[in-house]
Amino acid sequence: MRRAAVAAAATAMAVSLAACGSAAESGDKAEASKSDTKGPITIGLLLPENETARYEKFDKPLFEKKVSELTDGTGKVVYANAKQDATLQNQQVDTMITNKVNVLVVDAVDSKAIASSVQKAKDAGIPVVAYDRLAEGPIDAYTSFDNEEVGRVQGKALVEALGDKAKSGDIVMINGAVTDPNAALFKKGAHSELDGKVNIGKEYDTKEWKPVNANTNMEGAIAALGKDKIIGVYSANDGMAGGIITALKGAGFTKLPPVTGQDAELAGVQRIVAGEQFMSVYKSYPEEASVAGEMAVALAKGEKLDSIAKSTVDSATTKGVPSVLVPVVSLTKDNINDTVIKDGIYTVAEICTGAYKADCDAIGLK
Question: Looking at the whole model, is its pTM more than 0.85?
Answer without folding.
Answer: no
